[in-house]
Amino acid sequence: MNPTEHPPDTPAPEPADAAARPGPDRCLEVDGLSVSYRAGGGEIPAVRGVSFDLEPGSKLGVAGESGCGKSTVALALLRLLPRSARISGRVLLDGEDVLDMRWGRLRAVRWAGASIVFQGAMHSLNPVQRVGDQIAEPLLVHGGAAPAQARSQVVELLEQVGLPAWRERSYPHELSGGQRQRAMIAMALACRPRLIIADEPTTALDVMIQAQILRLIDELVTGRDISMLMISHDLSVLAETCDRLAVMYAGRIVEEGPADAVFAAARHPYGAALSAAFPRVGDPASRRAPRGLPGDPPDPAELPSGCSFRPRCPEVQERCSEVDPVLWPAGPGRTAACVQVLPPEQDTRPPPGRDRASETTGE
Amino acid sequence: APPAAAEAEGADTLTIAASQPVDSFSPFLAQRLISTSIHRLAYDYLTNYDPRTNEPIPGLAESWTTSDDGLTWTYTIRDGATWSDGEPLTAEDAAWTFTTMMEDEGAATANGNFVANFESVEAVDATTLKITLKEPQATMLALDVPIVPKHIWKDVGDYSSFDNDEFPVVGSGPFVITGHKPNQSITLEANEDYWRDPPKFDRLVFRYMPERDAQVEALRAGEVSFVSGLTPAQADALKGTENITVNTASGKRFQGFTINPGARTQDGEEFGDGHPALEDRVLRRAIMRAIDKDEIVESVYGGYAEAAGGYVPARYDTYHWTPDASQRLDFDPDAANEMLDEAGYERGGNGVRVSPGGDPLKLRMHVHNDRPDYVAMGKLLVERLADIGIEVDNRTVDPGVLSDALYSGEYDLIFTGWTVNPDPDYVLGIHTCGALPTEPGTMRSDAYFCDKDYDRLYEQQLAAYDDPEGRAATVKKMQEILYEEAVVNVLTYADTLEAYRSDQIASIQVQPDPGGNIWGQDGHWSWSSAVPAADSRAGAAVSPWALAGLGAVVLVALGGGVYLLRRRAATAGDRE
Amino acid sequence: MAATEKAGTGRPAAGTRPRRGRPGLHPAVRYLGGRVLTALVSLLAVMVTSFFLFRVLPGDPVAALTQGRSVSVDQLEAMRRDFGLDQPLPQQFADYCLGMLTLDFGMSYQYRVPVADLIAERIGPTLLLAGTGTVIAAILGLVLGTRAGWRRGSLMDRVDTGVALTLWSVPSFWLGLLLIVLLASGAGLFPTSGMSSPGVEGAFAVALDVGHHMVLPVATMVAVVYAQYMMIMRSSVLDEMGSDYLTTARAKGLRDSVVLRRHAVPNALLPTVTLIFLNLGRVVSGVILIETVFAWPGLGSLFYSGLRVPDLPIVQALFVVFAGSVIVMNLLADLVYPLLDPRVRT
Amino acid sequence: MSRAALAWTRRRRALAGYARAFAGNRGGMAGLAVLALIGLAALAAPLFIDADALSLTEAEGGRFQPPGPGYPLGTDAFGRSVLDLVVWGARISLTVGFLAAFVSVALGTLIGVVAGHFGGWPGNVLMRVTDWFAVLPALVMAVALAAVMTRSTLTIIIAIGVTAWPTTARVVRAQTLAVEARPFIERARALGGGHAHVMLRHVLPNVLPVVLAQTTLLVAEAILMEATLAFLGLGDPGTVSWGGIIQEARTAGAISSGIWWYMIPPGVAIAAVALSFTMCGRALEGVLNPRLRERR
Amino acid sequence: MSSEADAPGGTEAAVPVLAAEGLEVAFTGRTGRSTARAVDGVDLEIGAGEIVALVGESGCGKSTLARALLGLVRPSAGRVAFHGLGLGYRPRELKEVRRRVQLVLQDPTGALNPRHTVYEAVAEGRRIHSGSTADEEEHVAKALARAGLRPPERFFLRYPHELSGGQRQRVAIAGALVLQPEVIVADEPVASLDASVRGEILQLLLRLRDDHGLAALVVTHDLGLAWNIADRAAVMYLGRVVETGTVEEVLAAPRHPYTQALLSVLPESGAAEPQILAGEPPDPTRIPGGCRFHVRCPVLASGAAQAAGVAERCRSEDPGMLGGSGAAAQVACHWAHAHEAEPAG
Ligand SMILES: Nc1ncnc2c1ncn2[C@@H]1O[C@H](COP(=O)(O)OP(=O)(O)OP(=O)(O)O)[C@@H](O)[C@H]1O
Ligand SMILES: Nc1ncnc2c1ncn2[C@@H]1O[C@H](COP(=O)(O)OP(=O)(O)OP(=O)(O)O)[C@@H](O)[C@H]1O
Ligand SMILES: [Mg+2]
Ligand SMILES: [Mg+2]
C-alpha cells in the first residue's frame, strides 16, 4: 500500500440536515462514506456510500467477502488510505470530522482517539525495533510520557495481554503469530483510545490461538467503555463477539442488525449464504451438505446494473435488475438492502434518511 | 657543500612533466629515460656531449689519451671537482665505479654493456684513470656511466637492491636530488659548487603525469613549465598559445618494421614459422614500394616527421645516408605490382597473390599496442599492402607478446624502432650475424638479418675509431646494404615535439643547436642552462586557485545542503 | 545496469537465514567462524587464480622490459634469474605461495623494489580517494535515494533519478577527461592531475593542497558511483513503503518525516548498507580508471603501469589485493549485517 | 478459429498489454526511441557509408578538420568523418554489448536456475563458485582475460561475458528460489514432473522476465566495459568501436588539442546508449515484474 | 446428494487405496541441531470411495503427512502403501503413483503457474505421463467439465489471473481429474477461498466421490468442513493421530480432550465454556514424553485424570498409535479409556 497521505480531495459535504448531527453518545458516525481508487486509468469504487454509527462501548462486526471494501472502510476512518484513493462522505469521530481535520489534529486523533489492530501482525510490527519500543512510541508521541514512565506502562500493557514483561525486549520475529497479535493489541490499547478498529485480527491464526485472541479482545474491551469495530470474513466469529453485525457486499452494507439475529436469520440472501458457509458441527442439516453461493465475488470495477448481488442471488427477481436496493428496515433494529424487504411500491426512490442505518433503527 | 637550502618562496622552480615514474635512484640500476636523465643532472660522467654538435667533450675527464693498439685509455680527472657533501672527487671514485660494475652483477644491471669488454680499470693517482680493454671499443668517449661516490657506496652490500634514496643524494652534477614523493614528483636543487656554471634555476621538479592530455593541460595552466612527447595535434594546438613555445626537433629515433627473412641461429639452424616467400628479396622490396612514407608522415605524424632514408636518422648528419635516385624504393604500387607479377606471384581469386612456392601472401604483422604511432602506421600498411595483393593480419599486441613472436621467429612483419645514440655502433651491431641467436629464443636483435659484407663493414668501422670520416663512409655503406636487402625497413624519423612556458623559461639550450631537442639530451644542458623568465613563480606554495577551487566546492556543497533542507521544509510544510 | 539489480544480488544469502549452531558452540561464534573460514578459502582461491591467470599472460616480461634498449643476452639471463623466471612452474608456485603468506609479493620487475613496499606506499592515496569518494557517494546516494523513493513518481524523483542514471551511464574515464578540460585547464579551478603540488610545506597547506587535488577525481568517482547507492536505496525504500508497519506507524499519529526517519529509513538501510560494503570492495578496483586519468598515485595507477609491462609481481599482488578487499568487505558486510538486523541474529 | 490461432491471438494481446504498460513509462519509451534510432543507423550504416569513408588511405577529409559542411562532426587524423566513425562504431559497440550480455546471461541463467533448483550440495557448490567469481574484480578480471587472449572483438565479448555472469546467476537463483517456493512447483512435482520438467516448464518461464530485464541492463554494462577495455588499450585495433575512437582520440592528444569533436561524440554515444538500455531495462522490469508493477 | 448409508468404504475390509503405515517424517534442521518430528507415527487408511478428513491445529503435521503420501517427502520410518504395496522412491515408481494419486493444494492462486493457460495447467499432468496425444483436448475438456467449468472451451485460454478464486481451484481440481486418479489428497482445499465460494468446491468434492467413486483425503483445520463432507475424521496432534472414527463419532461425541477442546472453541458450538488451551501450538522438535498432549491437557489440569487414576500414566506412558483402519472409533487417551471403561465395568 502506498503510505503517502494526502489531504482529502473534496471537502466533506455539509451535513444534509442538522437533525442528523450526532449526539454526544455516538463515538463514531460514518455517513455516506465512499472511496474509490484510481488505478490503471480508471476508478475502482471500493466503498460506495457506507453509513453506520457506533455507541460508546458497543461492538460492531463487519463481515464480507474478500475485496468488498472492509479494510478500505477501516483505513478511511483514520484517513490512512493511499494517495490514489478518493474519499467522500463524513467520518465523525466523537463529533469531529476526520476527513477535513487539519493534519496536526488528525495526528493527535490517530491512536489516541482510535487505534487499529491490523490483520497481518507479522507485517504490522516493525521488524527491526523492539516490541517494547514500538508499544511505547504512541505513548511518547501522544501522552508526552517520560521514557521511564512509558516503559512501566509498556510492561503493564504487555501483562494485560498475557505477555511476560521481558518480552518487551524481544523483536517481532522472536514472537509467534499469536504473541505478535497480542503485542499489537497491547499497542492499540496504549493510549486508551475510545475506539479500537480490529481489521481481521484473527485470520491466519490457528483455531486455538484465534479463540485466545478473541477472548482477550473481548475481555479488554468490555467494561472499559471502548467501542470496537471488528472486521472479519468469518460471520460466525463476529456473531460470537459483537453486538451488532453489518454485512458488506461490493462496497455497500447490505444488511445490518443485532448479531445473533443476522447470523441466525439473515434477511439478505448474501447474509444468509455467508452464515450458511459456516456450518454448525453436529447440525444434521449441514452434514454432507456444504452450502455456498454459485458464481464469483463481484469485481468492484464492473458491477452489474441494478442489485449488485443479482448475478449470484439464489432468489433473484425481475425487479432486481431494475432496482439498486438501499438499506431498508427489515425487522426490529435491522435493515437490509434487498428487494424482498423493500416495500413493493418503493422503486428507485431512496427512502428518507438514505443509507442511514441508525435512522431506521428503533422502529 | 650541501646545496643552498633554497627558501620555498622566491626561488625559481622549473617544473617538468614526466610521463614515467623513476625506476630507481641507483645509477647501477636505473634504466628508464627519466631516471638516466636525472642521473645526468646529479652525477658527472667521464665525458659529456657538446650541446651544439653532440661531439664528445670533456666531462670529469679533462683529457684522455689512447694507446696505439687502442686497448689502453688514460683519462685525466678534473682537479677540484667535489661531491655535494664536500668530499673531493678523484679518479679512485671512477675506478671504483667501473670496477664494481665489472665485478658485481647487481651493479652491472643498467650499464653492464659498457664494461663488458673491460680488462681492468685502475686509478693511477688521484687524477689519472687507466682503463684496459680486451678489444678495441668505439664507445670509450661515450661511456654513459654516472660516477658514484666511493665513500658513500663502498659500504652498500647488495647493489641490486640499493635504491640510493637517502636525500639529499650525494652527487657531483649541476643539481642535487633532494626529494622524492613516489609517483608524484622528484625535486632537485641547484648545486652552487658545480665546477661548470651553476644552473640558473634554483630548483627542478619532475612531476609524474602519465596522461598526455593532463600534461598539456597542466602546461596550459602553468602548473608545469615543460612538457615533452607531444602528439602532433597537441603541438599544433599549442603553437598558437600565448606564452608557450613549441620546440620541434629532428628525432633521434627511427620507426620502421622488419621482415622475417627466415629465422635462424648462428649455426644456421632454422626455426620459427615465418612466411617462406619473405626469403625472396623481390617480395620484400615490393612491399617497401607499396608503402607511402609521405602519407605516414602526414597522417600519422601530422607532418612532424621525416620520411626515412637510411637507418641512421637525419639528425646525425655525419652518419645519415640517403639512397640515390636509382636505389630508391619509392612509393609506387604499380611498380610493386609489376615486380611481383614478374617474380611469379600470381593473384589468386580473392585478389591475394600466391607465391611461386604456392603459399598465399597472407602475412602476420605484429604491432606494439602501446605505441599509437605504430598502431596507426599498421593500419595504413594493411590497406597499402592490400593494394598489391598481400593480405595482412594486423596483430596489435602487448610488447611482451610481440617480443615472444620475435624471439621464436613466429612472425612475418614486426614493428620496431630504436633510439640512435650519437655513436651508432650499437644499433648497427644488432644486425651482424653475431647478433643472431645462439639457440632459438635468445635473440638480441630485432631481425634475423645476416650478411657477410655487412659484417665485414661492421668490423671495419669498429676499428676506425680514430678515422671519423672513413668510419662515416663505412657506416653509410652498411645502411645501403640494409636498405637494399629490405629486411630492416625504416619508415620515418619522427620529430621530437616539446613545449615550454616562455613566461617561466626565458631561454633553454637545445641539442644539437639549432633544431635540437630539450628532453632526453645527451648531457644535462637543457636544465643546467635554462634561464628563468623575469617573473617566473610557478609551482610555489598553495596556489590561490586552490582556495578558489575549494571555495567553489564548499559553495556547491552548501548550496546543495540548503536546497535539500528547503526541499525538506517544503515537503514537511505541505504535509501539515 | 541499474543499481536495483546489483541490489538484488547483494544481501548475503547465508546472512538472511538465522543459523543455529551445533550444540556446544555459541551460534555467534559459529557464524563468525564460518564467515571467516569462507573468506579465507576464497582468499586462497584468489591467490591461486592470480598465480595461474597471470602466468599464462603471453610475453616475456624481461624482453618487454628491455625492448628498445641495449642489453646483452647475459643481462637478460641475469634478469630472468633475479625474478625467478628460470625456475620450473611448480617451484615458482611454491615460492609464490610462501611469499604471499609472509606478505612478500616479490620484486617488481620495473621498479626493482619489493611489491609490498610499493603497495604500502600506494595504498594510502587509494584509500583516501576511494574512501572519500565512497563516503560522499554513499551519503548523497542515500539521501537522494530516500527522497526519490519516498516521493516516487514526483518530478523530483524523476529528475534525480534521471540525472543519476545519466551520470552512471557515462564512462568514468571520459567524464574525468572532460572535467580536466573544463574545470582544470579551461576554468583553471583545479589542478589537472596528481595528488599534491611540489614545494608545499606545512600540514595545513599540504592538506589543503591534497584536498584541492582531490576535488576532480572524487567528483568523477562520486558522479559515476552514487547512482548505484541511490537506486538501491530508492528501491529499498520502495520495498519498505508497501509494508504494513508503516501504516501502523502512521496510524499511531507520527509525522510523515518521523515515519520516514524512524521506521522506513532504518529498514531500507539494511540491504543498502550491505550493498555499500560489497561495493566498497569493488570501488577499490574501480578507481583504476580514475587514478589513471588523474595520475593519482594509488594502487590503480600502479596496476595500470604494471599491466603495461607486464610487471607480473605487481599485477599478481594487486589482483589479490583487489579481490581480497572485496572478500574482506563481504566479510565485514556479513559481520555487520547481524548487528543491524535483529532478524539475522540468533 | 483453431486453438493455436486463438492462443496466438491471446498471446499477442498479452504482449500488447505489456507493450501498453511499457508505453506508459516515459523513460522507457525515450530509451527505446534512442535505441531504435541508433540501432537503425547501425544496421543501415553500410548503405550510406561506403568503405572509403572508413579507409585510412582513401578518406578525403583533411586532418582534424573541425565540424563543418560535409563533416558534421569533423574529421580524425586520417581525414575520416567522425560522424561516419561513430555511426559505424555503433555496429561493434552494440554487437559487443548484445553478445556479451547474451553470453553472461545465458551462463548466469543456466547456473542460477540449476543452483536454485537443486539446492543441497550441488547448488551450494555452484553458488560458492559463483560467489568466488563475483569476488574477482570484474574490471581487473576482464583486463587480465583480454590480455591473455588474442586481441579481438570475440575476446572482448568473452572477457565481459565471463566476468558479468555471477550477478545474473545470483539474481536468477534468487528468483528461482522464489519460484520454487511457490506451490505450483509442488503441484508439478505431485503430477509426476521431473527436474527437467520443473526447470523448463515452470521455473524458466517465470524467471525469464527477470532475465530479460537483466539482459537489457547488462547490455549497458557491457558497452561501458567495452569502452573501458578499449580505453585501457585492450580493444581490437582492427575495428571501429566507440571505446576505440575515444582511445584513439586520447592517444592523439585530442582533448588537450581542442579537438573536441573527436572525443565528445563517442562518449556521448556510449552514455546515450547505456542510458537508453538502462531506462528500457528499468521500464521492462516494471512491466514484467508484477511486484514492482503493483506499486505503480 | 448421497445419504450416509450410501457412503462406501468404512466397513469394507478391502485393501485400502492409500495408507500410511507407522509413518514417520522427521526434518533435520540445517545445521543438524534439532529434528522436527513432523509426523511421528501415523497409521491412516483411505478406502476406495471414502472421504477422510484430517483435522488438527496448525503445525501438527497434516500437510507433511499429505505430502508424504504422495512421496513428496521421504518418510524416516514406516511406509506409504498404495493398494497395499509400499511406495518406491525411484523416479519411475513415483511417477506411476503420482498418476493415480493426485494432490490439490490449499492456495489455487499459488498452485497454478501464472504463465500457463488453463488448458496447459490441466493438460500438464497428461503430458507428463502420456505425452501430447491427439485426444488430449477431449480429456482436458472433460476434466474441466467434471470440475464444473462449463463450457470448458471458454476457459481453455484463460490465464489464472483472469479467473476468480473458486474457478482457479476448479482448474486445479480439473488438473487432478484429467489423469483419472483413484485418490485425491486435498491439502486445505478451500482455506484461501471466500466463505461463499467454499461451499461450491466442497460440493464438487462430494459429487466426485458420489459420481466417480473417487477417494479423498481432505486436510483441514476446519472442523466444520469435516462435518460438511467427510465420512471419516482423524484428529491429529503433534505428529500423531489421536482420535479417529466416523465424522459423527468424532465430532458429535469427541472422546479425546484435545478434540473436545477444538470443538469447544468453535464460535457456534453450544459448549457452555470454551476450553481454550493455553499457549502456542506445540513444537515438533520437542515432543513431550508420555502422552504428547499431557502438558496442555485440560483433563489432566482439572484433576479429572487424577480422579480417574491415570494421571501418572498420562505423564509417563505413551498411549500409542492408533490403527489406521476406519472400522471402529479409536482414541489415544488414557483418560478416555479409563473413563469409558469405568461405567461399563
Ligand atoms: N491501493 C489500492 N489501489 C487500487 N485498488 C485498491 C487498493 N486497495 C484496495 N483496492 C481495491 O478495493 C477493493 C476493496 O479492498 P479492501 O482491501 O478494502 O477489501 P477487503 O474487504 O478488506 O478485502 P480482504 O478481505 O481481502 O481484506 C478491492 O477490490 C481492492 O482490489
Ligand atoms: N521442510 C521442512 N523442514 C523443516 N521442518 C518442517 C518442514 N516442513 C514442515 N516442517 C515442520 O513440521 C511441522 C509440521 O508441518 P506441517 O506443514 O505438516 O503442518 P500443518 O499441520 O500442515 O500446519 P498448517 O495447518 O499450518 O498448514 C511444523 O512444525 C513445521 O515447522
Ligand atoms: Mg482487508
Ligand atoms: Mg499445512
UniProtKB/TrEMBL annotation, chain A:
Biased composition (Basic and acidic residues): 346-363
Gene3D superfamilies: P-loop containing nucleotide triphosphate hydrolases
Domain ABC transporter, residue spans: 28-275
Subcellular location: Cell membrane
Transmembrane segments: none
Cell membrane is among the record's keywords: yes
Topology versus the membrane: Peripheral membrane protein
Region listing for Disordered, in residue ranges: 1-25, 282-308, 339-363
Alphabetical keyword list: ATP-binding, Cell membrane, Membrane, Nucleotide-binding, Transport
Protein name listed in UniProt: ABC transporter ATP-binding protein
Automatic annotation (TrEMBL), chain C:
Transmembrane portions of the chain: 36-57, 123-144, 165-190, 210-229, 268-294, 314-340
Keywords carried by this UniProt record: Cell membrane, Membrane, Transmembrane, Transmembrane helix, Transport
SUPFAM superfamilies hit by this protein: MetI-like (SSF161098)
Location of this chain's protein in the cell: Cell membrane
CDD domains listed in its UniProt record: TM_PBP2
InterPro entries: BPD_transp_1_N, MetI-like, MetI-like_sf
Keyword Transport among UniProt keywords: yes
Superkingdom assignment: Bacteria
Region (Disordered): 1-26
Low complexity composition bias: residue spans: 7-16
Major subcellular site: membrane
Topology of this chain in the membrane: Multi-pass membrane protein
Pfam families in alphabetical order: BPD_transp_1, BPD_transp_1_N
ABC transmembrane type-1 domain: residues covered: 123-333
Gene3D superfamilies: MetI-like
Family per record: Belongs to the binding-protein-dependent transport system permease family.
Name of the protein: ABC transporter permease
Organism field: Streptomonospora arabica
TrEMBL record, chain D:
Main subcellular localisation: membrane
Alphabetical UniProt keywords: Membrane, Transmembrane, Transmembrane helix, Transport
Pfam families: BPD_transp_1, OppC_N
Keyword Transport: yes
Membrane topology classification: Multi-pass membrane protein
Domain ABC transmembrane type-1: 90-281
Domain of life per record: Bacteria
Location of the protein in the cell: Cell membrane; Membrane
Key word Transmembrane present: yes
Record-annotated membrane-spanning stretches: 92-117, 129-148, 154-172, 207-232, 259-284
PANTHER family noted in UniProt: OPPC IN A BINDING PROTEIN-DEPENDENT TRANSPORT SYSTEM
Family per record: Belongs to the binding-protein-dependent transport system permease family.
Protein name: ABC transporter permease
UniProtKB/TrEMBL annotation, chain E:
InterPro entries referenced in this protein's UniProt entry, alphabetically: AAA+_ATPase, ABC_transp_ATP-bind, ABC_transporter-like_ATP-bd, ABC_transporter-like_CS, Oligopep_ABC_C, P-loop_NTPase
The entry's keywords: ATP-binding, Nucleotide-binding, Transport
Ranges of residues in domain ABC transporter: 20-263
Span of the signal peptide: none
MF (Gene Ontology): ATP binding
PANTHER family associated with the record: D,D-DIPEPTIDE TRANSPORT ATP-BINDING PROTEIN DDPF-RELATED (PTHR43776:SF7), TRANSPORT ATP-BINDING PROTEIN (PTHR43776)
Family that this chain belongs to: Belongs to the ABC transporter superfamily.
Protein name as it appears in the record: ABC transporter ATP-binding protein
Taxonomic path: Bacteria, Bacillati, Actinomycetota, Actinomycetes, Streptosporangiales
